Amino acid sequence: MESSLVKDNPLLLPLNQDKTVYDGFITVQVSFYRTTFKKVLHCCWQLKHLLRGYEHIVKQVNSTRPAFPLSLQEVGLKSRPDCRSIPPPQYYSQLISEMETLGWAKLLSIDTEFQTLRLKAEDSSGRQHVLTVKLKSKHPAEAPECSADLPIPLVITWTPQSTLDQLHSQFLLLLESLTEFWDVLDEIDSKTWILEPEKPSRSDTTRRIAIGNNVSIKVQVDPRHPKMLPECCLLGAEHVVTPLRNKLNANMQLWNPDSSVLHNLRDVLEIEFPSPATHEKSSFSVECGICYSYRLEAAIPDQVCNDPRCGQPFHQACLYEWLRALPSSRQSFSIVFGECPYCSKPITVKMAAQKS
């Protein structure tokens, strides 16, 4: 059967080794005969089963032509194990009607199945966002699956009477509720040097901000309360981090929710953060003392020798493997104790997290 199928339809390509699923185009012969009252469609029963519900579309193609033999050339049919998964004709009519109401300018893309749409939206600050909508074959009776790059879960309200325009409006309202959160992070991104994440997304709530050479602070901003004191973690050698931690604890009550997070951090820590206007990022991108690279996959050197005369940074994974290989090192629970590869002063590192 497979050889005859390919022979009769050379534009088909097998999609699996068993050659049971194909993609491509086939040519079928359909004839119409006009009677006094109606047109009659004649074809094999398999094709008629496949075109059930679509007869009026096929006949519409032939309505501007005289009678009668019609060759439907290059019908784009994707092989499916179950043809019943193809949405009914009213699905497409409903989709076109809803897109006309929403506006075609808001459609970024749509897949070949006409079921996954990417809609664009803009918040009041001019930020561009994308809402991915996967429609069900029984749309609008079934709620679609929606996803977007957001720091909170995307929850939508849907009824059988809902439309894409209403869905888009809900998305815009959610974006507006997060405007202040993104304003806070955009200010931090533009006025400081961000060590992690390298390319922040709209769903990221944390920033690791450079303070100095091998010293940084990781802040996690609450999307619901973006101007409140965020969770803070100071990273670096203890002799540098300790004074900053003491200032943070002593000045915490000075935090003003009416001011920006960056302004508050400056006041509480009593420092000025290096910025793109004052420093080059290379000043903070110090390579690991073991692998001699700055980034190891997504990680940057965050383990620092506490000796003030050394202060060499290392990747956690690199330092862990180095110390574990030394006969003089010892381990207690998840902590490995050993000597700095550079100055031989005592150094510790937590066991590298195992990837699942």
Chain-wise SSE layout:
Layout: H1 2-8, E1 12-14, E2 22-34, E3 39-42, H2 45-50, H3 55-62, E4 68-76, H4 89-102, E5 107-110, E6 116-122, E7 128-134, E8 145-148, H5 164-177, H6 179-191, E9 194-196, E10 206-212, E11 215-220, E12 231-235, H7 238-251, H8 261-269, E13 303-304, E14 313-314, H9 316-325, E15 330-332, E16 335-339, E17 346-350
Antiparallel strand pairs: 1-2, 2-3, 2-4, 5-6, 6-7, 7-8, 9-10, 10-11, 11-12, 13-14, 15-16, 16-17
EC number: 2.3.2.27
Subcellular location: Cytoplasm; Nucleus
Domain RING-type: 288-344
What does this structure look like?
By secondary structure, this protein is an alpha+beta fold. Helix content is 27%, strand content 25%. The strands form 5 sheets. Strands 1, 2, 3 and 4 form a 4-stranded antiparallel beta sheet that branches. A 4-stranded antiparallel beta sheet has the order 5-6-7-8. The protein has a 4-stranded antiparallel beta sheet with strand order 9-10-11-12. The two termini are 44 Å apart. The chain has helices spanning 2-8, 45-50, 55-62, 89-102, 164-177, 179-191, 238-251, 261-269, 316-325; strands at residues 12-14, 22-34, 39-42, 68-76, 107-110, 116-122, 128-134, 145-148, 194-196, 206-212, 215-220, 231-235, 303-304, 313-314, 330-332, 335-339, 346-350. The protein folds into 4 domains: 2-85, no CATH class; 89-177, Ubiquitin Conjugating Enzyme; 180-282, Ubiquitin Conjugating Enzyme (Roll), CATH 3.10.110; 286-350, 2-Layer Sandwich (Herpes Virus-1).
